[in-house]
Amino acid sequence: MERKEVKENKKERVKGKKKKKKRKKKKKKKKEEEKKKKKKKKKKKGKDKGKEEEEKKEKERSKGEEEEKSKGKEEEEEEEEEEEEEEEEEEEEGGGEEEEEEEEEEERKRKDKEEEEKKEKERSKGEEEEKIYLLDNVVKPIFISFQLAKLATINQHVCLVL
Fold first, then answer.
1. Do residues 111 and 119 make contact, with C-beta atoms less than 8 angstroms apart?
2. Is 0.70 topped by the overall pTM?
């Protein structure tokens, strides 16, 4: 009889513990849901404030852009006048300078192309060296170990070689 009573008491204690765990889980879930709700509310408030701030920034930008445009137009006009004056002076001096500039630009382009070709060759050499290294130091040893494993199994021995 005592054993039965002990077993029943134990079952009741276990049930009580399980119920307690369930209650704790429910409380945690409620707290987490409340936190999520609070975060959502904060985000909404933050979004509203963010929208207002963005609108203010856009207004300031548009004002600044308009001012820059008006200043930019004046500056462009001045630059155009200066360029025209410079062109007139160059025409008076002659066209020899323009030809020299063109030749210099062509030389620069040729040099750039040669440098790019050299770099590509160096890269390809480096890639080939890497492939050779991988073949010698990685692939071949693995292949050899597999061959040895086959030989071992042929002789009806269980062997792991790696």
1. no
2. no
